[in-house]
Each structure stands twice: as structure tokens, then as C-alpha cells.
Amino acid sequence: MAPPKSQSKKVSKPALRNVDKGKSKDKISIEDEVPDFPRGGGSSLSREELDEVRGEVDAEFEAEERLLKKRKKQKRTSTSSTTQDDDLGSLFGGGINGKLPRFPNRITLKNICPGMKLWGVVSEVNEKDIVVSLPGGLRGLVRPSEALPPFLHHQPKLLETDTNFLSSVYHVGQLVSCIVLHLDDDKKESGKRKIWLSLRLALLHKNLTLDVIQEGMILSAYVKSMEDHGYIIHFGLPSFSGFMPKESENVEVKIRSGQLVQGVVKSIDRTRKVVYLSSDPDAVSKCVTKDLKGISIDLLVPGMMVNASVRSILENGIMLSFLTYFTGTADMFNLQQTFPSSNWKVDYPQNKKVNARILFIDPSTRAVGLTLNPHLVHNKAPPTLIKVGDIFDQSKVIRIDRGLGLLLEIPSSPVPTPAYVNVSDVADKEVKKLEKNFKEGKLVRARVLGFRHLEGLATGVLKTSAFEGSVFTHSDVRPGMVVKAKVIAVDSFGAIVQFSSGVKALCPLRHMSEFEIVKPRKKFQVGAELVFRILGCKSKRITVTHKKTLVKSKLEILGSYTDATEGLTTHGWITKIENHGCFVRFYNGVQGFAPRSELGLDPGCEISSMYHIEQVVKCRVTSSNPASRRINLSFTTTPSRVFSNELVKPGIVVSGVVERVTPHGIVLDVTAQGHFKGSISPQHLADHCGHAELMKSALRPGYEFDQLLVLDVEGSNLVLSAKHSLVASAQQLPLDVNQVHLNSVLHGYICNIIESGIFIRYLGRLTGFSPRNRATDDRRSSLSEVYQIGQSVRTNVVDVNSETSRITVSLKQSLCSSTDASFIQEYFLVEEKIAKLQLVDSGGSDLRWVEQFNLGSTVKGKVHEIKEFGVVVSFQKYDDVFGFISHYQLSGISVETGSSICTAVLDVSKIERLVDLSLKPAFVNKSKKETTNNQAQKKRKREALGELEVNQTVNAIVEIVKENYLVVSLPSYNNTLGYASRADYNTQNLPHKSVANGESVIATVMALPSPSTSGRLLLLLKSISEASETSSSKRAKRKSSYNVGSLVQAEITEIRPLELRLKFGSSFHGRVHITEVSDDNYAEAPLSNFRFGQSLTARIISKFNMSESVKRGYQWELCIKPSTLAGEMITWPRSGEIEPVKNLSYSTGQLVSGFVYKVDNEWAWLTISRDVKAQIYILDSSSEPNELDEFQKRFSVGRAFSGYVLSCNKEKKLVRLIPHPLLVDPERPACQRDGLTDHSSESMAFHIREGSVLGGRISKILPGVGGLLVQIDPHLYGKVHFTELGDPGVADPLSGYHEGQFVKCKVLEITHSGKGTVHIDLSLRSISDRTQKQELSALNDTVDFAVLMEKIEDLQPNTMVQAYVKNVTPKGCFVMLSRKVDAKVLLSNLSDRYVENPEKEFPVGKLVIGKVVSVEPLSKRVEVTLRTSNAVGASKSDKDALNNLTVGDVISGRVKRVEPYGLFITVDHTNMVGLCHVSEISDNHVDNIDSIHKAGDRVRAKILKVDKERHRISLGMKNSYFNDATSGEIDTKLSSGDALSIGIESTPSPERSSQGRENLDGESVDGKDLFLAEVESRASIPPLEVPLDDTENLDMGDVINQDSGDATNLDTSDDKNKKHAAKKAKRLREQEIIAAEERLLEKDIPRDEDEFEKLVRSSPNSSFVWIKYMAFVLSLADVEKARSIAERALRTINVREELEKLNVWVAYFNLENEYGNPPEEAVAKVFQRALQYCDPKKVHLALLGMYERTEQHKLTDELLNKMVKKFKHSCKVWLRRVQWLLKQSQDGIQSVVNRALLSLPPHKHINFITQTAILEFKCGVPDRGRSLFEKMLREYPKRTDLWSVYLDQEIRLGDADVIRALFERAITLSLPPKKMKFLFKKYLEYEKTLGDDERMEAVKRKAMEYVESSLA
User: Can you give the pTM of this predicted structure?
Assistant: First the structure.
């Protein structure tokens, strides 16, 4: 490798060290002068620093440093220059001086830098990065964004969705080339650096171009996509792509998109820029890079194989030269031998040829590292046969490097692995001389310290201490191990500790101590050695604990779920505390749960008061399930006492004494056999929610509960309940799911409420769930408002699943209402208990006062106070008891304060010490009578009550409305008082039904007065119990009298659209389905004859179970069909139905009827019987689109409908109907499936066949002429061909159709494919072919009417046809004649005239008319011509007329059209048109034809020439023709050249189809004759077809003197110039037309090279012809031929024809720009040549135009910069510069304008500034344009042309205020009258465009004022 020219200064080590540290002031200069790397590991490194770096820097390197130290001690006197030579760390330390280096190039952490290219091997593929093993044992990281190809960067979600994406593209052991992006200092460890790499090929292949690539090269590429025959590949560069065939790809490897592959270049297609690769592994591994001429170091890629030769041997490696220009080095570990011995140098004589691969390249120092490793040379990574931490006893010493280390052979299997032991790792003590202690061949015990994957080299250690530590690597870590470690860092999250082997672990903050640490750094000091226990290791992250209890624990370790055996005792720590228990964590992430009952808590104690998070606890495993990863724990290490079933179990009733009352419950001493503690939660003190709170506040220790129910046993603690409802039903309460029976009603309590439902607890842990829809009758109410936790409820069991132990219950009051008075009974009992407790508390008197106020008795009292709401009464004996009489109970009697009254007691409230009294005579008198005779009283009372019996229904009158109950009297039973609850268990929290005093209610007697009812008669209101089934035994008896088959008298309660709701018996509900009303199922509205409340006889035909009846709202199915009522049914089936649903025996095609009950957008749903439903699909309901639009109106709910069965679904009891009978094919069985799949099969079998007319819905409009996709069935679609969209002759058949539209269609054909799919062809045409043909035959036979032909057999040559253009090609087009017949039209047959652009003139879908040329039925080929001369042609009469015309005849006619080049004249009595050329109109020169002739003028003309073949007539109108009678013969010269022949134009005759003419493929263009249009189009074609830039095409539409106002006529010389210019333009125009005519007169366009050759010989100076020839050759893809034609043209065209030559040069530019290789250089070469032959400015402008058109912005910019320097006096060039800047929205316009004004001559300034201002207005900033105009008008205020342009620009912007202000300024100028008139006129025109009359008048006024002032 040639050294750089500049010599570097010699820099001493301290200087270099300063460079390393970045502290030296001279850093920049040193870096500039010293290109080599700073040294790695000089003497400044301490032992600790060396230890830290050792893991990253290879061992041998540091050993060499030590050797150098010794040498330096011996040579202290030597100069600093020698230290530079000895420098080991830099790349080519001394190579800069021209001396050979002593050591090979090295990559170390010190000298690695961004931009280096390295070879590496993938060692890990993680989710978020890839780890790459680099040369020298370094480790690099690759982010996913740097590993993915560029085409996947547009899919950011790819990595999110596919977390394994990286691992699918890269694999461990894959060799990759990478480039260093940047280096980060490791935050965790000082001295370490992270190397971030990129695998992007765009960086590695930065300077790779297609020119450099040669066959046989190895290239890396990404797989972009998989195709049928191979893979499209991407090289990371946009300039070229690649393809890799599948045959050459290794079959074993599955390739996916984004994967990196290597391949050998097989061939290169330079025109298409495609490189073809082969990925054969053998070829890839054997291919050697060839010597390339002038290859640069940028093109070297790591991994590239080269032929190298040994140049010299270095101290620990060799130097090699390769690829002629380059040198590289290979170190000791990259030699050919895996185990190089001490005399390895013998194997590498000078000039020895070897194969090597590039290991790394440093472009900055041009240092290259090579490897001769046999594995790597074969393109394979060395095998990894050992693991870090492995110990090998029989390791053999292969080589001893003095002062450096040892090379060992480790006996791995199947082949040994080399290992290198650094001198520092040989022994615990420092070894001075290795060769004394070790001999080659000696066996030693070694441990693997690390592994360099790229070199396949292990790093070993022989120290005895390395074999002692329990943790050497991460793989040695076991949960529960006790280890010693040193604290190396302490942070807020915890401490990082390090084991003796160097492995690190984290001790989280919470594990640093038993208790919470406020200052972790005080507890853990860096450097302290402490004892830890390993908690776990996950993905190389080790966690340890320093909690003393865990570290010193002697208990077993729980490290996996399988270790958790029942009874195991271990230590864990609490991670979370919930109300129901604690979560405990063990080792390795194992977690368990300890329920509240197992925490050993005292009754009523909270968990958080006993335990805290992170507390270490000793716990016992009670049960475990490893499969579900669940462990149940107990904190009581000894199992709690096992109680025998007799002693205590859930469900038994016990008594207990209150020990203490806590906020969360009551703790009791339970008096049972043995000593137990129990607890009652506050909600369990009473059934009534309000009483529970009162009871708790009144309870005191010592109070005895005589009846408590044991709900659950938690250890030694009993969970109890005092709820009366639970205690009373203790025997019925279930403890196990098997004890629960369906439809039973159970008492329970609510244990939890969630949004979706309520959990109800019974005994133990048995829980039922009531979903939201079953929890309340009113679904709108919120569950948390209706119920509360702890509330007593009654539940109705709806579902029981023993397997899952799930019980579903209903809480609806309608199903769970009380059947007794237990709720109100408990209310009064608990009230009495609370009253007693409150008395004890207050120390007041006892409850004896109550005995004085017996219910119903009379008492005397004194009116204490009269209030608004009633009268307060006081009693003499009892000061603290008051009475109250409501207004209703006063009964109209007036009382006064202080008066004594006698009242009757209605109710006593013991808690409030309040008595409710009445003055009603009915109560007072009754009481008085009773009191007179005590014996009689008791007797009468007994009689009155004796008449009452339990479950008897009575009428009652409401006397008092209390909050929770009603006091009622029973008038029928001597006004006996009764008490009824207003609510029930489940409705406690709902608002009560309002009841008024005196209201009559119905109630049932539930309990007669007794001590257990507090002496009250208890009733149950009917409003609470009416929904209950089991409310009374009488009702149960009544119910049994109704059976299926019974006749009942029923009353109509509701009439619905499809059913009657009836009520019969005692509140039984049933329904009559609409199909059970009449025997005639086809009757419309059978329910219309019934009315609300009507009675009728019905027969029960079915009964539902409870859950069904709740869901439906009725229980009985009834029938009122006369036939069913008349029939005598003797035996009724026990199945619960008279006619169970038939086994859906509907046959296909059967007629059935039903009634619509639901309609949606797609289906109408009918009910055929009460269980069978039917459906009709929208598209089956009709074939008329207007009916389908009104589908939902036609099928209104309740409408009767009859239809035919198409299919049945027995499982769903569903039938599909169609309204018309099925079209069953007699030759085919009805059940045939037609090979159709899913739902379409059944429908296709019967109701769709060829010829069917169906309703359809447009599903999709296919692009182009694809037609429509129409849905005709739920899963079936048909296709409508483009020709079948409408009747024949419609120009745009798709117009009027849109997706979702309903259409009427006819099935044309049904075809079946082998795969089972069906293709249906449909038609939307309204008339059939037969009617069309009949109509045609009725027409005159002579008229050829074009039709659409169905079959190819119908076609005959010369048949007139209509067709639609299908597609257009350069050779012609294809047209569709019909659904099955296509035809081709050759380019020559498209039109009589030349077709410039077939795609434009014949767009896809266009309707055309033509004539059949040929038909080949066998090959189904049809050819059609659209030429009018053939297709429509001249009629017979026209042909005859043409034959009758002879040269010399004088004809009369009418001017049809006037053109600049002549007149078109229609010959009288014919349809023929002739042309009279401008030169034949008059003997004198005609300047303006328009001034002489107008369209429609009658004229006389003489026939000069008749061309019968081309139907053209040339006419003359010169007077001399008519004066000279003998001029029969026309001068041949005149007839041949001067007059221009023209085609006959046929005017359509009235009987012809008016449409036929329009459709002749644009024959008539804006009323112009075909030929004429052609002439004009030819005349207006620019002379180049290859798109050229018009050299004068600058967009300067606004010319200064553009206004045709008076200002333009100021100068008479201007007028003359203009006239002259106009004449010149006219002459040029005529010349162009003549040239065009000549071109057209040539019979046809050249079609091959011979014809073109003839043409270029006849017109050698015509650039147009030459460029056409080039274009023709290019269409044949012959680029070289096109170039040669361009060269010929340039040689052939005359030197004087500069413009023609320029045209060819421009075409040449375009050619090279498109096909040059590379285009830039090719264009530049042609451009330089063009400058020598043509005007340089024009050539520059032409090239500029091409660059702008092809959007080559950079080149445009460069060219413009050159042009403004070269043509600085050209105004046009400067304007192009300004225009370009504005187009690119770039800044710097002002500086360009300033430069231009300095460069341009003064006379061009105004023009330049004006045009710049116009450009600013058009595409820049209008304000800048204004400032330019204002600047000019300040200098030239009287130039109206400037004012005019300025005004025009403002008018274009349209800001009215600004425009008017400018006009006002302009008209105040003092200018000549003519100029002022121009300005006023312009102002007025502007106001006219706005239409503002007032403004217009104002302008006129100002003009008059000006005139008057000027006259004055």
C-alpha cells in the first residue's frame, strides 16, 4: 500500500495521551498531522483499568504493551522517534514514514472510530437489537432501524406487530459486513464503550455504481420480494436493482422479504439497470475479487475474498499485498493454521500466494486487516463448541509467546478449539518468565473466560482462583445461592454488586434491608463486601437480596411452582396486601396467595395493622397447582385445629356474648362446645338495612345473642350472622353446589356488586351470581343504587352448573317475592331489641310503659300542642312518651290545647317512644265497648280473629303510612288492625309505592297476633306477592286445573302486530300467535277484527317453563282457530305441546304463507307458524328496481305473504322463500347442487337459470371496459359485459350506473369451472336481439345499420358493426363487438386520415362504427376497419356525381367554410365539397379572404382537377377562367401543383342515422372536414416529434405593448412595423400549410426502414423526417441505430439550415438523456459537440429546456449559473434564471436582479424589470412585483404601457380595492388626451366586468370632468 505523501511529525506518547483525553489545545492540529490512531493501553493505565478493559480488548494486545514497557526501561536514552515505531495500538504505526510496520493492524476500543468497515458474526438476535461479534473480540450493537432494508422503513408497525421479525431475517452465526456509526460511553461502567453499528448496504455500498460491477463479483443484497421464478433484490442503492433466480438458490434455506443474501454476479443488463445474481453457496465461497483498474478503497467491502501475496513477516503477523495497489496485515489469530506453532513464520515465505478475506477497513488511515482463517475464507463462521465457564483439565500448550501469553488446544468435541491465555491470567501471582513455567505440549487445567466468535478463539484462564468461585458466569447462577459480592455502585433504585468473577447483579432498594431505607448510600458503601442471596436470573440480569431473614434462612428454597409441595414451610416476602389476603413472592418470580383466614389475624383486626409490604414472612404451602401457576399459603405454620363436624360447621345455629365492638365488626365469645371466637360484620346484625346501623351503635360488651348462624369458619374464627332470614332458613341454606336445585328460592346476602352483576353468598364460600339483566325488573336502574353489600336477599336459582360450580340466580322481585311475613316480623322484633339496648345505655326506665298502650285499646291524654301536620298528645304517667293524631285520624273532630281526650291506640314505636292515636269513632267506640266488659272483649276479639285464617285474602283500609310499613284496618272484621310491610328483602332500597290514607288495598293474612309477632296481625300486600307463583296453596290448587288442551275463557289485554295477549283465570297470561287465529293463512290482517277487552274462547296448545315465561312475558300458548276449537281432543301429549314443531318437513317448491314481523336492509323476516320463521332476500322479492328501492315499504310488519320454499335450515327452524314458482329443470333433479359452495348452491339449483329475469344490485363498477359486478343472491354475483350494459349504440353505457343501485337483469349464461366456482353472465339490455333484428329488417335494405353481434357465425365480411374500444396499442386497437366477440383494427384502418395519437383519439370505451374486413370462425379472429372511405364511404349517387364531373366544367355552389388557405365549396345538388385554394380565388393577390367571402355565399367555380381515387375536387374562381372560353384544358403545372386536391365531404342525408355520423370516430372535428382537420393539425405540428423544448418558450404571456387600446397606436412607425410583421407571419403560415399539404399528399406514413430511407433521400434537410426516423427506430428498441441516424442527419443537413440542425441536436440530447450510460456524461458530450456547430446561446437554452422538462433540478441550477456568466448581456437568460428561482421557491431573487442590472446594457433594463415583476406576480411574491413596478413608474411616470401592464397584473390578482386605488392614481396624471382616454377606457372596462353601475357612472363623470378641465 502506497504511503501518503505528507510526512507526519513524530509525536511523543504524552502528547498522544493528551489527544486521547481530549485535553490538549493542539488537538486539531495533531489530528490533522497524525492520521494514525492514538495508542491503545499505554503505560498510563493502572492495573484496575486494565482489568476493566480486558473483557473488550484482546489479551495478546495488552501483553505486548507490557513487553514494550520492559524494552523502554532498557532504552530510556533512546529518542522519541523510536517510540513511534514501537507503537502497537495505532493502525500502521510507522507506515506513514515509509518504513514497514513491526506489528499488524489492530482494532481496539481505543482506536475504533465511526466510518470503519468491519466484518462480524451475529452472536445474538434480540427483539430490540442485534449483537455482532467483531474482530479482536469486540462486541457491537445494531438497532433494528439499521438492520432493516430501506423499503421496510415505510412500515414502522412491522416491528411492533412482528416482534420476531429480526430473528426471522438474521440468525446467530451469520457473517455480516457492518460500518461503525458512533460510540457511546457505557453509563454503567466507566472505561467501557458501546459500539453502535449499521448493516445498511447504502452505507457499505456508498460508491458502488453499475459501471464498477463486473461478472464474478460477490455482492450482498436484500430480498425485496418473492416472484414466481426468483427474487427481486435491492442493493441499498436506488440507481440499479437485481434479480436472483430460484434454481440457483439453496433449497434448504427459507428466504423471506428483507433478508440479507450474498450472490455472485452472473450478468448485468446495463440498459435496464438490472444485475443478475446466483446464490449458489459454493460459488459464493470460492469467488475471488478480480483486479479492477483504479479501484478505490471505498469499494472494498469486509468479507471480500482477494488473492494476496506475502510481502513481509511482522513480529506477530504478516503483511500481504492484494489487488495491485493495496497492502493489508493479518495478525497471529488470523493465520491459515488454527494452531500456529512457535515456528509459524516458516510457513509464510515472501511472495507466497494465499486466499484471504478482508476483515476490516479504516478509510481514514487506509489500514486494511485481512484473515486467512480457513473457516472464514470458506465464508463460514468458525464453530462454537465450548461455553464460557467450561473447565478443561487436558488442555495442551501449543505455543508460548514470551511476555505475552500461551496458546492452548482445548479438547472440545468434535474438533479441538484454540484458546489464548493472557500472561496476567496464567497464575494468581505475576509470572516473570513463561517459558520457565510452561513447555510446549504440557497439559494444563484451563477455564474458558470468553469467546471470540469471529476468530473462533477462546480466552482462557489458568488462575486457581478462577476455579473456586461459585458464580463464574450467568449460567452458574441458581436461585437461593448465598454469595459474597462487592458493592460497586449505589443509586436511588438500589445497588449494583459484583461477584469475584466479574459478573454483576442488582440488589433492588427494597431488598437492601428488612426495613425501608431512607439513605441507601449510608447502608451500602461502595467497595464494601457483603453477603447476598440470589433471588433470580432473567435474561442475564441477576437480582440479589440482603434481607437478613432471607440470607440467614435455613428453610427450603421455593424456586419453581413444581417445588411447592403441600406442607412445605419457607420464607417469602409480601408484595401486595388486599382486603381478602396477601400476595407473597418467592425465588425466581414464584408467587403465592395467603387468604385472610390463613393470616392468623385476631377477629375484627385489619391485615395492614399486622403486616406491611416487603415484610419477610414464614409461610406454609396449603395447596398448589403448578399447571395454573397457583400456590395457596398460610401464615400459621401449624395447621389450625380440625373441628369435628359435630362441634362447629357452617350452617349450625349458636349463641354468643359480645366481647368488644370494633369499627369493622363485633367480636363475640361463642358459647359452643369448646372455646371459639366469632365475628359479625355490621351488615349482618339485621335484615333491615336501617336497623343494622342502629343495632351496632346500641350494642355493648356483654350483650348475648341467643341465635347466630355460622356462615363460615376461618381458622379458629367463626364468621357469624344475626340476620333473622338466614337463621330461620338455616336448614335450607346450601353449603355445596350439589345442594342447590333449579327454580328453588333461597335466602342469601350480597357479598359484592360489580357493573355486570351481583354476587350472592350462602354458606361457606358458596356464591351465586345474578347477571345485570336478572338483577332487577327495571333494567334502567343502577345496581349500586338498588342493592348494597351485606343486604339480605331472596334468590331464584335459574341455572346450576356442577362442573364449573357456577350458580346463576335471579333477584327480580317478580320471581323472588316473600311468601310470608318474615320481613316485617323481624322488623318489629329487632325494633324491640334496639329499644331495650338503648334503655340500658341511657339508664332510663324499662319498657313497662308499652303495656299501658295495647294496640286497639283506648287511652286518655291531654292535648299538648296543635301543629300543622296533626295533634301532639301528652300522658300524665309518662313524661317522655308522646302521642300523635294525624288529620286523617282526627276524623273532623276539633280539639283545643290542654283539653283531655280519649283516643284509640293504632301503633306504638318503642325506639322513638311515640304512640299513634285515633279519634275515629269506629276505633274509640269499639275500644270503649270492649273495656266495659273484659270477658266479652276477649271473646269478641277471638271471634273476630277466629274468622280470619292464614293465607286468607282480605280488603283493608290504610290508616297510617309509616316509612317502612302500613297500619291498616279490616272493616269486614270489626276494624281489626293489621300491619303490612311496604317493601321486601330485594326492594328495600327502591322508592316505595305511594299509598294514601283511606286507600283500599288487598292483602293476605300471613301471621295472627302472637308474642313472636309482637302481638300484631301481620299481612302481606298483594302488590308485593302478585308475581309469586307459590304465594298461596289455594292458587297452586287453582293452577293445576289448567292443562294443555283445556278450553279457557280469556280476555284480550293487548293487540300486537303479530299476536294477541290474553289473560285468563287468576292472572294467567297467554298469547295467540297470528298463525293460530284463522284457518285461512292467506287472510290479510287477521287481527283487525279483534278489540281490546274482548272475551273469547281459546284452547291451550303449549306451556313454557318458568325461565322461558319470564323471558317471554307469558306462559301459555293459545289457539283460536275454529278447527282447533271444534276438534275434540281426548288425550293430550305430556310433552307440553299439542302440536310440537313439525320436523321441518317443507319440501322445496312448496307454497307457504306467513306474516312479516321484521324488515331490515337486506331481508324480510316472516313467521309461518309460531315456531318456524322464514326469510325473503331483497333481490328475490322483485326484478323491478323501483320496487326493490321500496323493499321496506312493501314488506311492512304484519303484511301477509305467500311464497315458495327455496331451502330449509332445520337447526334454526328457518325457511327461505322466493315469491315466484321455482324453475326446476325437467332434465335435472331438483336437489342438484350445481357444484356451488355455501349458500349460493341451494338458490342456484332452482331459481336461477339461463333466461331468468332477476333483480340485482350493482356491487362494483369494474375499471375501463370491465363492465359491472352485480349481486343477484346473498353470496352470488354475476358479471355484466360492457356491451350488455345498455341498448346498442349508447355512447357511454356506464353513465347512470353507480354502486349500490338496483337493476333488472337477465341471465345469459351460467358456466361451471373445474374448481367448483360458477360464472354467471348477465345483461341489462332492455330489448332482445329478436326485436332488434325485426326493427332492422323493417328499415330500408339499402341502409347498412351497424349492430352488436352476439356470435362470430353471424358476422360476414362487409357487415356493418358497432363496437366499443377495448384497448389501444401502437399497432392499432382491439374492439368489443359483443360479449364473446372481439375484433382487431389495424392502425392503418383506424381512420382515413393520419392518427397522431391513437390513445387520445380512441379512448377505451369509445363507441365506433365499422365494417367487417375478415372473419376466421375457427381461430375466432375478426378484423374490422373504421375507415370512412370503406366503412361508410360515398353513396352511389356521390360516386355517380364524381364520374359526371369533368375538368373544365363550371359549377355553382355555396361557400361552406372560409379558411386562411382557401374556400370550401359545396357543389349544388350533390354532397360533395371542393377546395378553391387562396391562389385560385382571384387574379389579383388576396390579402384577407374573410373580407371577400363569407360562409353561405353563392359562388361560381371551375373544376381544375378531379381525383376519383381519393374523392377530391380542386376548384378555381379566377375571372380569367370564365372570360377565356377556350380554357378547357388546364395548365398541367397548375393542376399538378398549385391547386390543392381535397376530399369529398358527405353531408348526412336526412334518412341516415344522425348518430352514425357522430360516431365515425371523430370524423367531424368542430365541423371541419376530415382532410382539412388533418391539414391543419399537420401545419400546426412543431417540426419535432421527439419532445423538444421550444427554445423561445419562456412563459412571458404579458408583453409590454400587449394592449390593443389607443396607447398601442401612439407611434405610427409601430403601426407600420406591425403590418409588416403581420404580412410576414401570413406568408410563413402559407408556407407551412403548403409544406403540410405536400407531406399529406404522400400516400401514407412510412412503415419500415426502406420507406424512411426513401423519405430522407427526398427531404434530406427536414429535421422533422429525420427525427421521425429516429423515433421509429427507438420504437424497435434499437438505441444504437437511433444514434447513428442522428449522426447521419447532422452530416447530411445543409450547413445553412442551422435551425434544422439544432432540432436534431435537441433530439440527440433527449435520446442520450433517456438511454445514455450514464446519461449526464453522454448528454454533456453531445452538448459540447453541438456548441461547435450551432449558436451557443440557442444550444444552451435548448439543453436548459430539456433539464427543466425532465426535472433534473441540480443540473438545471448548474447550467443556469454557467449561462448567466457566459451570456450576461442576454435579458432572456437572466429572466430564465429568475423564473427558475421562483419555480423552485428559492430565496436570492433580489441579488440575481441586482447582478442582472449591473450586467445588462441600460436599454434592456426596463424590459428586464417589467418581465421580472410579471414573474413575481405570477409565481412569486406579488409585493416584490409591486415594488419593482412602483420603482419604474417613479422614473417613467408617463409610460402608459407600464401602467397598463401593472394594472393587468393587479386585475389578475383580483383585489378590487388595490385595483381601484391604482386606477385613481393613473387618471390623475397629466398626460396627453390620447393616453388619458386609454386609461379612462380601461378603467370603465374593468368596472363593466364587475357590473357595478354606480362605479361605471362615477368613472364616466371623472372622464367628463377631465375633458371639461382640459378644454378650459
Answer: 0.39
